[in-house]
Amino acid sequence: MVTVPQADSILQKNSVSCPSLRVPLSAATGCVLREHVVADRDLPPFDRATMDGIAVNSASFLKGVRQFPVEGLQKAGAPALSLKSRNACLEIATGAVLPKGCDCVIPVEYVEMDGRAAKVRDEFKARPMFNVHRKGSDARKGDILLRAGCRLSAAQIAVAAAVGKSRILVSKTPEVAVVGTGDELVEINRPVKPFQIRRSNTCALAAGLALSGYTRVKRFHIRDDQKRLRAGLKKILAKYDVVILSGGVSMGKLDFVPRVLKQLGVTVLFHKIRQRPGGPLLFGKTSDGKPVFGLPGNPVSTQICFYRYVLPYLNRANGLVPGAAWYVALSEPVTVKTASTHFLPVTITSAKDGRLNAAPVFPRNSGDFVSLTKSDGFIELPTETFRLPKRSVQRFYGWVNIS
Ligand code: AMP
Ligand code: MG
């Protein structure tokens, strides 16, 4: 039996690291970046018009010129033209390079075309570099734009694309086996007898993995039979990088998982945590260093253990630099009866003062996974705290990965 901080430290000390591989940028969405992405040139790479309108020399406007003969059109994607007369202008498109001799773009809304001249309305106030996105103002050539360890979401993909990273180094996600155990469990497309239940845990685990970018996942199921478990797990442990078991890890007569893992050479690094739910959680490593998790089968325990321990472990293996922890305020007092660490599902609402309020969703017991659909995640209540007052602030773990 370990405490929650001890379990965290054992998991941390026994981290693994996934290999990296270079993939086309189009295949990198949601992956963890494993190299720094550097600006190959200034961003923006040239003084860029931010409005459609006319490009002028602001000094002429400030001296009182309001009518500018049009010398031509500066299109986006064309090299910079040169303004011939200081008191003239060039029509210009958003995204075009600022023409030589111009330092200000007057938006089309302030301009009336009068034959071949542009007349500017009096209310326009010109100043140098107005409506110009200066070269290098966002980043300089050589600046690190993305650091290794970030997840590639749309904003990061845009930056990588902008610097010409058509291929990019990312983590190779592990091949994960999700293994359910239990004689009472039936595959979800099969007829189910009144005394049987469907294999929801392994579906939930595969879904939680997929939502965090772990898509190389295979589901298995093994009956509560020591021989079958040993034979099945032997093959699975040899083939997969990570094994996540559900069920068979508690004190029951047919809970064979801990002893079979030991028989197969797995070193059990902890079994049982002083926490509720999910106390029977097991973590071990195969002789060749592969991580094995044995999650208690009660569905609330399974999901909480997965989000609290397994997912952060995999994210660390993947090289993800964790985001800041989230904290929420309890919307009502909470009392617990035991000295364990408690994980309590909550629904989050955002208050007008910017605070996130957490309303407890008390599952009737660890089998009540229907109640989880009404929650956004769970809070962690520290050990030896029996009564938490309303508005006390607690660490929050979301069902949706926000880092
Ligand atoms: P166990 O940890 O094997 O003692 O299982 C505890 C409870 O969780 C039992 O009621 C099981 O039927 C249930 N359970 C175990 N595995 C699953 C699963 N894959 N899907 C749904 N419920 C499960
Ligand atoms: Mg069982």
Account of the protein in words:
It is a single chain. Helices cover 19% and strands 30% of the residues. With 403 residues, the chain is of the alpha/beta class. The strands form 8 sheets. The protein has a 6-stranded mixed beta sheet. Helix 4 runs parallel beside helix 7 (299-317). The model has no long low-confidence stretch (mean pLDDT 96). Bound molecules: adenosine monophosphate (AMP) and magnesium ion. Adenosine monophosphate binds at residues 180, 182, 184-185, 197, 199-202, 246-250, 252, 255, 296-299, 367.
A few lines on this structure:
Helix content is 19%, strand content 30%.
Strand content: 25-35%
Largest sheet: 6 strands, mixed
| Unreliable parts | none
Number of strands: 28
In helices, the fraction of residues equals: 10-25%
Overall form: elongated
User: Which structural class best describes the helix and strand composition?
Assistant: alpha/beta
Going across the biggest sheet, name each strand in turn: 7-4-6-5-9-8
**Assembly state (oligomeric):** single chain
Bound molecules: adenosine monophosphate, magnesium ion
How far from one another are the termini? 30 Å
Helix count from the secondary structure assignment:
7
What gyration radius follows from the Cα positions, in whole Å? 30 Å
Q: Could you report the average pLDDT, rounded to the nearest whole number? A: 96
